[in-house]
Write a structure and sequence with these properties.
mainly alpha, globular
Length: 166
Amino acid sequence: MLAFPEVKVLDVLLAAALLEMLAAACVTIVLIIIAWFAGVDVMPRDVVQASYAFGAAILLGLGFGLTNGVIALATPAWFTGYALINILLWASAGVFFVPDALPTVLREAAAYQPVLQVIEWTRSAYYEGYGGLVLDRGYVIGVGLWTVFLGLLLERAMRGHLLAYK
């Protein structure tokens, strides 16, 4: 696709992001329908906060996707290294543990993980009084905006140099 002069790297990155968002929305809708038929109530206590958390996750994903997409185009080995780092990031995101139950030193260190913040934000939408020790909504939005800015800046700086035949 990038062989066509009208199609730029940013177009491909944004199209991939849109495709991922639509796929995630479809999967979410299907899972909600299945849960509804099974008699499971999946609606959060605070729908607005759950929607904000979902939006923050999209912003964070877009930012990291843009940044890593541009870096991976410039340095193909980056994707392998980031995939390995991503395993550690996923394990430390609070999916398998509750951050509020950690000792203070570990909890404060884990609070810098933006995906953990999004998970805590989502949990706080489902459970009353949850996430008071770790949750920082402004931090997630700030990291998301910063990574989007960084990704767009890198793409602009590397435009014309990312692909040899462009």
